[in-house]
Structure formats: structure tokens, C-alpha cells
Hints:
The complex is a heterodimer.
Chain A: H1 5-12, E1 18-27, E2 30-40, E3 44-50, H2 56-63, E4 71-76, E5 79-81, H3 86-91, E6 94-97, H4 109-114, H5 123-141, H6 156-169, E7 174-178, H7 186-201, E8 205-210, H8 213-219, E9 222-227, E10 230-236, H9 242-250, E11 268-278, E12 284-294, E13 297-302, H10 309-317, E14 324-329, E15 332-333, H11 341-346, E16 349-352, H12 356-360, H13 367-370, E17 382-383, E18 386-387, H14 389-402, H15 419-432, E19 437-441, H16 449-464, E20 468-472, H17 476-482, E21 485-490, E22 493-499, H18 505-512
Parallel strand pairs in A: 3-8, 3-9, 6-7, 7-8, 13-20, 13-21, 16-19, 19-20
Antiparallel strand pairs in A: 1-2, 1-4, 4-5, 9-10, 11-12, 11-14, 14-15, 17-18, 21-22
Helix pairs in contact in A: 15-16
Chain B: H1 9-34, H2 39-52, H3 54-79, H4 87-105, H5 111-140, H6 144-166, H7 189-195, H8 208-225, H9 227-237, H10 239-244, H11 249-265, H12 267-276, H13 287-297, H14 302-325, H15 331-347, H16 353-367
Amino acid sequence: MCPPATDSTVTGGTAPALELRGIDKRFGTVHANRGISLSVARGSVHGLIGENGAGKSTLMNIVYGFHQPDVGEILVGGRRVHIAAPHDAIAAGIGMVHQHFMLVENFTVLENVVLGVEQGAVLARSLAHARGELEKLARDYGLDVPLDTVVSELPVGVQQRVEILKALYRRAEILILDEPTAVLTPQEADALFKMLGRLRAEGKAVILVTHKLREIMAVTDRVTVMRQGAVVGEVATRDTSPRELAEKMVGRAVLLRVEKAPAKPGEPLLAVRDLEVRDRLGVARVKGVSFDLRAGEIVGVAGVSGNGQSELLEALAGIRAPARGAITLGGHDLVAQNFGPRERRRLGLAHVPEDRLRMGVVTKFSAEDNAILGYQDRADYQRGPLLNRASIRADCEKKMTAHDVRPALPLLRISAFSGGNQQKLVLAREIDCDPQVLLIGQPTRGVDIGAIEFIHKKLVALRDAGKALLIVSVELEEILGLADRILVMNNGEIVGELARADANEEKIGLMMAGVKEAHA
Amino acid sequence: MSAPRKLPRWAELGLLPLVNLLAALILSGVVVKILGESPWAACKLMLAGSLGTQDGIGYTLYYATNFMFTGLAVAVAYHAGLFNIGGEGQAYIGGLGSGLVALWLGDRAPFAVVLPCAILGSASFGAAWAFIPAWLQARRGSHIVITTIMFNFIGAALMTYLLVNVLIKPGQQSPETREFGAGAFMPLASDVLAKVGITFAATPLNFAFVLALLAAVLVWVLVWRTRWGYAIRVAGQNQSAAVYAGISPPRIIVQAMLLSGALAGCLGLNELLGAQHRILIDCPGGAGFVGIAVALMGRNHPVGIFLAAVLFGALAQGGSQLSFDMPKINRDMVVVIQGLVILFCGALENMFRVPLAAMLSPFAKKQKPAA
């Protein structure tokens, strides 16, 4: 039962769907939210942008009841509400679609939607009741979802729809979407935006949390910009521009485009032939991939995440053993000679892993201990049988200065650094040993705009120094900005190769969706 | 999310364990009261009995020596991300190793020769007993908690068999070996101190205490100051990062467990060569399990383990004093107190964290405007 738009205008009058007044929140010494006021109208899509650590997530977590504000109040439809836990938020009509879906993978869509709001002990009755209502919701909002399919069999775009459906089934009037397009193809993202338009037309209030300016411009009515825990601006979207928003986010002018000269590719440094990688269950994730990586070029691998890019990267780095194929570097066949990450590093292959927190750093270690990860055997880090603490520290300080890692404190725990600074340190570690080939997964995932600019510049400088770079990224903009040549992966295969000059978002998007070059 | 539960470092390392300990003692006091004795008098008795006299101190440190070896064993495994519950079995089999060396060399070689051989014997036997679960975990994925527990029982059964059927001194009833030769006796603290003119009560405190301290230093250096320790900590914290860094987690599992078993095995140096002078049934006497509590309470750091080992040593010694002087309290009461300490310092470790953080936060808030 979702009240139609007319109904809500009657009960709510002109009161905004959601209003925050003077929300203030501290975590220890971190002032995460500073007196934030925000008003979201019914029947609108409201954008919330800011760099990582700007306080967007904290704010949304307060609205959804994960945190309590120290000061400030929340009003829903003009009435003050106390939200102590997510179920209070749900009761107040607030729904949230998290970046990482909160779905039980081996349940059907219907079971997932009903989970937590079953009525009575007999499940069959709840399910039957829910089915009727969901079919109506699906009709009203154009959310086409197969109710009896197991969630793990659905594409991510559809899983996201399930999350939205879940929120609507719980009578959400206010829908918060946290970085909703991170896992979608551009086409899927467009479908999502269309759906948001429909929700808006039905009188729902949608809050879109993102760091992608393109999305803000495409779908929002108003946009709130946050920086360092405070609101630094709120504007109607049609009165602003991406450049203005970016400047507000960072607090200074930023380069949105990467400045670089045309590439001068040299000889191939890394050759991949007919590479097949299987997962633990024996399913082929990379299916007979071949390509060369030349000195002085940046090759970008585009694709919706989960189409084999991660496995390709791990196989190249020596973390995952391929089922067949050859990887040649410096005259060695890395596969045939069974070289692991250690030997590959020695041959000049460096790797910035995709998931920094899972693989790239040890979160409980200090910065200096993380700055030697993978290079712990280097001679200048040893003093007899012991680690040479003094040289490790000095080396870390050097890296921090050269790569603008802030704060430059080698003994600080890595988890205390922002994502951007962590990534700068990882990058410093990997390029410090002068590698010939650099593999980079998601160069700027969870990295703020200021640091993105810095990292991109570093990568282009490496290219110009004659190194070969392979970049895997789900950010199409990043691939388009950095790469000289683009490989598009779908379902474990390279479905197309484009020179940068021939590439555009739409072409790549179609390839990512599996449409082969010939048909594009 | 976790922010309000964060404690300042001094409170995390000092105050929280103290509060937990206090809670355990208060509850023990209640039990004592129910048994009809005065908790206050019992407390004084325990304190006096464990730390108030030379006798008490000697026994306390003698017990602490066992707990340090087993506590360090748990800690090394912990840093590699493993929960070694098999300290008891590894100590028992390690005791067999040192005992065999002592039986073999005790009569024919001086202590200076016996000692390194005995260390080698206990460490290698303990390590060997830990190797099997470690290998099963590394290569077969058999959970090390389960296998090490089972190996405690297998070890106990094996030792019973050996002591009853093979090693028993002929012509006696109790299942224990003959006494070691004098060359295998650890120098007693009282004797050593007497040589430098200090009189110290005759207690089982012996040279193994120094070895345990050395082991603590060794563990610290290995874990925090060597490349190998770095690899262990990386693998223990984050297996993916370890693989990424070219560290093989299965290899680390085996290596760390070998060291862990070796440390636990060294208990025999204190218990057999230092005190009993023969191999006998159930020589670790539960020290393998107490080691878990010691490591937990000591935050898996050698300094913390030393302090926790002394505490548990004092509990053991003070407890036996208590059961001696207060007839209504038997030795089981000591086990109850130990159990409560383990409960509060281990399982319920976080119970006081939130209220403590709330109590301390006004102080933290005051600093903020300045920041």
C-alpha cells in the first residue's frame, strides 16, 4: 500500500519529506558532521556529494539510525522523530539501499523482501500476501523483478532493484541510495535513473549519495555539497556545473581531465597469451585472453565488476594460478616457471591491488610496516637477522614526502589515514622500486578528488618514463581519462579493443554489456 | 560505530584488565562468603601466601614459569592467526622429550651438557606434537582448534601408556620413571642465591625461570623485529595481503605452530628438570590451558604475558595456601577463582569496556575544544 502522490500532499502539506536541523556528530577527535541542516522535498531527487570523509555516510547513517547525533533533530513530514535504530527509520518511512547489498544470496527475491517483516509464524501466508503487494508495486514503479528467482542468479542491476523494492514494501517515502551506480554498467545506471524519475513522479523523496558529478547533473533536482563534515553549498542542479561542484567539494579548482601528451608506445614488456583462469569451483573466469602491454602506454581494462578483470589482475600478479596460458615478462614465462608474487616483483612487476583494505594493506599495521609489504625481503630493510627499523622508518618518511601522504607519520596506524592517503602510500610502495610493469586495480577507489588528481598525474608520469601500465577500473571516466588503449571485458573475454581516440562511453558501455565490437 | 568503545591506550592496557580482575575477585569473595569464610581474611591469606613471604614468592614464580612458557606458546600462534589450544598436550610431550634426555644424560654428563640437550629435547618434542595439527590445518584445512584439543587427549593417552608400560621404574606402583641423575637437576634459586651470599627460602623456583624470561625476550624479538615475525603477523592479520606480499600462509601456519609447540614443550624444563626430577603422569597439570588465559590477559605481548603469568602463579600459590589454612575452602576453590579470572579477562573481556569508555569520555571531551 503505497499512498499515491495526491494522498501525501494532503497529509504533508508543504512540509519537506525529510528535514535535518543542526546535526552535529563527533567520533572521538573527529568532527564528522558540523551543524548540518538539509531539507529534501517530496517528489524530488536530492543529490548529496562530497569527497570521501566529507561526512556523507555519517549523515546518512544518522538518518538511518546507525548513529545518534550529538546535537540536532530529524523531522519527517514536518514531525520530529527520534531514530534510535534502523527499525525506527523504517517505521518513519525511510528506506536505504546500501552500496553493498544486504540480501541473502541463496533466498529468492520474494523471501528477501519478506525477511524481517513476516507476519505471524506461518511463512506461506506472509509470502502469499507479499506476492500480491509486490506485483502491484512492480507495476506502479516499473520495477520488473522475477519474484521466485534466487538472488545470486540475478545480475547486480536487478539485485539493486530488489533492494529498492524491499524499501518500498516497507512503505518507504524517503529513499536513500548510497553510491548506487558503483556496480552498474552505464546502461544499467540509465535504467536506474529512469526508475528514480518514476519514484519522483509518485511523490517519493530520493536522496542520492554519490561522488560522480555526472550522475548529479543527470538526475537530481537539488544538490547539497559537503566538505570536512559541513555543508558548503546547496543549489538547484540546473543552476550549477560540474566544475563548480567539484571546486566546492575540494575547496579549490581541480582538473577534471587528465592532461597528457599522446603515448609513444615502445616494445612489448608484458605479453599475455591465451590465459585462462578458473575459480575454486572450476568455473572459467578468464577465458583465453591475449594482449600485449607496451612500454610507455597505459592500457585500461573496462568492464562491469565481476566479469573477470579481478581474476585477470590476480593471475598477472601471481596471486592466482592460471589454468593455462602464458605470461611473458623479461624473457621469462611466469606461468611455466611458476613464479609467485615475490619473483615477479624481482622481475619488475609491481601491483596495486583492487581491494586495498582486503589485500593492499594490513589495516592494523602502522604506515611504515605497510610501506614494506611485499618488499619485506629487500636488503636495505635488513640489519643482520633483524629488520632495520631505522631504515624502514626513514624510507617510509621519504615515500610520504614524495607522494604527499598526510599526515606524514610512519608510526600511525594505516586505518587512521584517509582512503586517498592510504592509496598514495600503496602507490608509493609499488613504484618506489622502479618497476617496469605496473598493474593497478581501481587506482582511485575510495579516494577523494584532490588525491585522484595527484594519483592520475603520477600514473601519467610513469607512462612518460617508459613504463607499461595496466589499469583495471570500474570507473569508465577514469579509463577514458587515463588509458591510451582500452580493452573491454565481458564474461571473462576481451570483447573489444579500442584506441582511446575511437572510444566513447556509449561504445564501451555496449561492449561491457556483451555486445561484440562488430555489432556495435 | 566502534568509536564510543575506544579506550585510551593506558586504560586499554592497564585499567580494563584491572577492572576485570577486580570483578573476578569480588565474585570469588561472594563464593567464599557463601562457603562461610570471610572474604577479606581469605584475600589477605592469599596475598600473604603468594607474595608476602619468600616461600610464597618462590612458589609463585615457579608456577609463573610454567605459565610463561605456555602463554608465550599461545601468543606466537595467535600472531599467526591461530588458536593453539594444544599447549597442554605439547607441554606433556615436550616434557617427555626433556625427561628422556635427563634420564639418558643425567648420570653421565654435567649440567652444562645436559641443559642444551634438554632444551633441544623438550622443544623438538613439543614442536613435533604441534606439527601434526599444523600440517593438517595448512594442507587439509582441518580446524586447528579441534585438532589441537584432540591432540591433548591423544598426548595424554600416549603418555599414560608409556609411563605405565614402558618408562615406569620397575617394582613400583605409581606410573612414573626413576629419578633423573643429578646432572639433570636445574639449579634451584635458593642454591644459586646462597652462593652469592643471599639466603632465600628453599622452593622449587629454579633456573628455568630465567629460561622463560629469555624465551619472552626471544619471542618479542622474533615477532616484532625480524622479517619472519613480520611475515607471521601479516599472515595472521590478513591472508590475502600475505599472498599478495609473496608470503605463503600454509608455510607460516606450520612454522608458527612449530615455535608455539616448542615453547609449550619447554614447560618440562621447569616442571621435570626443575622440580619433580622424574617424568610423571599429568605433569603440565593444566598449565597448558592456563596459558590461554595468560596470553589473553597479557594481550599476547611478552611483557603482558609475564605479568599475567605472575598473577596466575600467585593465584595458584595463594590458593593452595588458602585451602591449607581455611578448611572450608578446598583446592577446587582455587580452580573456581582461576575460572572466574579467565571468564572475566577472557570471555567477558569487553563487558566493562562500554561503561568504562562512557566514564572516561568526559575527560576526552574536555580536551576537544583545544584540538
